Amino acid sequence: MSTTITVTGMTCEHCEGRVEDALAGVSGVTDATADRESDSATVEGDADVDTLVAAVEDVGYDASA
């Protein structure tokens, strides 16, 4: 299953990497891709969307489903 969340505050590749790493650490995630130009992150797997949002917020970015 693919889930896309809105992520704001990413300004560079390093930011994208931090968001991807945070999402990849969530149980059930098989792949995560962040895109600063579209202010979004797409996640493959069966993780709960609220858990994904919390993981992104924990590393300092604003996120919403």
TrEMBL record:
Domain of life: Archaea
Any single Pfam family the record assigns to this protein: HMA
One Gene Ontology molecular-function label: metal ion binding
CDD domains assigned: HMA (cd00371)
InterPro entries: HMA_dom, HMA_dom_sf
Domain HMA: 1-64
Matches recorded under Gene3D superfamilies: 3.30.70.100
Protein name: Heavy metal transporter
Organism: Haloferax marinisediminis
